[in-house]
């Protein structure tokens, strides 16, 4: 069946711009199996990311016809692709399992004209050696959802995998009922996960984890390869990147929802958008995912969970960090302990920017915490509360405060906080305009609101993709206040049933 897939001459570099170099296939064979995508019946492109295609050096014009449909459905391979499914393990809700790409096929690594290397992965491309009991396929709704959220995260300025295309397959997948099938083309700096290292260790061959660590250093952190202890440097840079990433998630109110170790990318990109969603009203206990019954991956738990996952990563590197394992544990523990401070530093720096605080002062943390406490107490919308602080904020208005505080008379803690914040702003040596500019850059106007995402997905069920297209356009400029995005700023009505997300496998 798969043998019918031919690499044709027309898929040449000049016609479409593909430029593959598949370094992952040069790792030990344990790390992957060769696996072609399973062809689908009637592929149709339903979303295509022109801007991303162009930035990858692909020729968007030639990619938009039958050829694109054939390639992004896995029915035809682009020249130079060497499709594989990658092996990995993962702690899923705390339990270690052997996993691997059960429904994804990595076509290979595309090198852009600027020399950047990206994994091109088809998600939903059919069964692989790692499918276990799964069908290897994906439903249209969850693939559109990943496209929307990943592109929104990117536009917010947060490192993430990207989405190049969604193709409907013309086939049904069976979950609770029959659903239209789809394939997402995912672009990632790589798909090396904490779970990939856990897989390497599970093979009881010290050379495997060393080869993976060396590969990761070469691919992502070449500036560290000559360090005296490059494996410790690897641990430290992964810790640094996660401390930055999770702080950014927390600043925009993003809940990943399934921070298993197989869903944590080593290079520091957000990855695997299943049951994720953004906060409306601020509450650190918020959980949207229907499968997260203990709240393991609740909004406020994300930093300690990241540290837990990094500890699993550190364990895989112990034999490489020092020949004396006790010494190695001591070194790794010190590195891991630093995560909390690194995270806190990144987070507070970001929160200062959100409040227009240009100098560091000892009471900044308290000021931020007081705001969050009152947002929680009064169930205030996280995104809109921050953005509203900028309205009417001018040097002229500073003495009267930026908000019409009469509107907030039923929220005395917030009013008190607001006075304190305005006082602090007015004491700054820099102008209010400088503070405001910073706030406008760090407080989004629009995020993917849960009800908007659902409405867009529902419309596609009747074949209407215009709602998704409009939503994507709005989300691509999240910091711009514009008449066209007014209706995208409201949280769902308080009367709406609590939002629930599903894994969508
Ligand atoms: P995820 O929840 O998407 O991170 O997936 C966890 C694991 O389940 C990965 O190994 C996936 O490849 C696998 N998986 C998810 N859905 C399917 C499916 N429909 N068929 C086969 N494997 C799947
Ligand atoms: Mg995953």
What key phrases describe this protein's structure?
single chain, alpha+beta, 6-stranded antiparallel sheet, two-stranded antiparallel sheet, 12 strands, 13% strand, binds adenosine monophosphate, binds magnesium ion
Notes on the structure:
With 505 residues, the chain is an alpha+beta fold. The chain has three domains: 6-190, no CATH class; 195-353, no CATH class; 356-442, no CATH class. It is built from 16 helices and twelve strands. It has helices spanning 13-16, 50-55, 60-63, 66-72, 140-155, 194-202, 206-220, 230-252, 302-321, 325-354, 364-377, 382-388, 412-427, 432-442, 450-461, 466-475; strands at residues 32-34, 44-48, 84-86, 89-92, 95-98, 104-111, 117-123, 138-139, 162-174, 178-188, 254-255, 277-278. A hairpin with a 3-residue loop joins strand 9 and strand 10 (178-188). It is globular, with a radius of gyration of 24 Å. The two termini are 24 Å apart. Magnesium ion binds next to loops. Residues 99-103, 130-131, 134-137, 262-263, 272, 274, 503, 505 line the site of adenosine monophosphate (AMP).
List the helices and strands and how they pair.
Layout: H1 13-16, E1 32-34, E2 44-48, H2 50-55, H3 60-63, H4 66-72, E3 84-86, E4 89-92, E5 95-98, E6 104-111, E7 117-123, E8 138-139, H5 140-155, E9 162-174, E10 178-188, H6 194-202, H7 206-220, H8 230-252, E11 254-255, E12 277-278, H9 302-321, H10 325-354, H11 364-377, H12 382-388, H13 412-427, H14 432-442, H15 450-461, H16 466-475
Antiparallel strand pairs: 1-3, 2-9, 4-5, 6-7, 7-10, 8-10, 9-10, 11-12
Helix pairs in contact: 5-15, 5-16, 6-7, 6-9, 7-9, 8-9, 8-10, 9-10, 11-13, 15-16
Bound molecules: adenosine monophosphate and magnesium ion.
